[in-house]
Design a protein that fits this description.
Rossmann fold, 2 domains, 332 residues, alpha/beta, binds iron/sulfur cluster, 23% strand, 12 strands, 12 helices, four-stranded antiparallel β-sheet, 36% helix
Length: 332
């Protein structure tokens, strides 16, 4: 049986505040294979970025991983020291942040940043590093790469800067790219170009992609499988086209109902009322119950387990009851 490139098992992340310890991720499990594209979707505060940052051991204090495993090529990243982790970060796993200026150093030219990154991970002469950097700039369709090489980030447009960040992420031929809302800070017209570019590069180089976003529309364009998170927990996982076609969890249905291309009648039916609870106010039972149009008595007191069918899973009492009824009907 082939081993997943990355497998997260029962991950829990806590934040130890002065008077209370908050649980930011609970029992999060998922896996991604080589060359696969996985979307992690949810509103702000759902825990998607915490999940991504945990993979790279970038959770800063007072946050910490309190349980679970993060297996990358079979090695548990939660057990690695800072030096071993640095070798994996930016080498085998690259990250693309929402704001390109979080990655780019404003006082160094594009060329210096690219070649310094290469020197940090590989033994290369200056001309060799320059040649690879130029190749990567061409791959991300930067016009006039020779000229851009000597420019500073502030001399470039937002879209161009995000292309440079993608070029940087690709420098070391990573196996996995984690992109955290990579287009949110960009103009709408540029967003589609950047997503197309990421898709093209991941496909051509067989790089796996974890795309973190609040936008199910973007996930449906780029990924093959999606997980939906709510209040630090995975509430639904399925092939992306199945999620978009027939989401089962009421929260996912609400996200789809909010997509702009939905008809007005469907939007009225499905749009979610209320907001994601703060970590200090996560309700008992199903955390979504105060917002759920289908809430049952059991939802207020009991955390729903996963109902699994045809490679998909859903954490919802109502869906579990529907599946049981369907199973009984097919037996009789
Ligand atoms: Fe709604 Fe209950 Fe399902 Fe939660 S478990 S999503 S409250 S029906």
């Amino acid at each position: 049986m082939s081993v997943a490139l990355l497998e997260i098992r029962n991950l829990e992340v806590r934040f130890a505040m002065r008077h209370v310890t908050l649980v930011a991720l609970r029992d999060v499990s998922f896996a991604i294979n080589r060359g696969e594209r996985l979307g992690i979707v949810g509103e702000s505060g759902a825990g998607k970025s915490v999940a991504a940052f945990s993979i790279l051991n970038l959770i800063s204090k007072p946050g910490y991983i309190s349980a679970g495993e993060i297996l990358f090529e079979g090695r548990d990243l939660t057990k690695l020291g800072p030096q071993e982790m640095r070798k994996i970060r930016g080498n085998r796993i690259s990250m693309i942040f929402q704001d390109p200026m979080m990655t780019l150093n404003p006082v160094l030219t594009v060329g210096t940043q690219l070649t310094e990154c290469l020197h940090a991970h590989r033994e290369l002469s200056e001309p060799e590093a320059r040649e690879i950097a130029m190749e990567r700039l061409a791959q991300v369709h930067i016009p006039s790469p020779e000229a851009r090489f000597d420019q500073y980030p502030h001399e470039l447009s937002g879209g161009m800067r995000q292309r440079i960040v993608i070029a940087t992420a690709l420098l070391t031929n990573p196996w996995l790219i984690i992109a955290d809302e990579p287009t949110t800070a960009l103009d709408v017209t540029i967003q589609a170009e950047i997503m197309d570019l990421l898709l093209e590069l991941c496909e051509s180089q067989n790089v796996a992609l974890i795309l973190i976003t609040h936008d199910l529309g973007v996930v449906s364009q780029v990924t093959e499988r999606a997980i939906v998170m709510y209040a630090g927990r995975v509430v639904e996982e399925a092939p992306t086209r199945e999620i978009v076609r027939a989401a089962k969890h009421p929260y996912t249905q609400g996200l789809i109902g909010a997509l702009p291309q939905q008809t007005e009648s469907r939007r009225r039916l499905k749009q979610i009322r209320g907001v994601m609870p703060a970590l200090t106010e996560i309700p008992p039972g199903c955390a979504f119950h105060p917002r759920c149009p289908y809430v049952l008595d059991v939802c207020r007191v009991q955390l729903p387990g996963y109902s699994i069918k045809n490679g998909a899973r859903v954490a919802c009492h109502m869906v579990a009851a529907q599946m049981q009824t369907e199973a009984k009907e097919s037996e009789s």
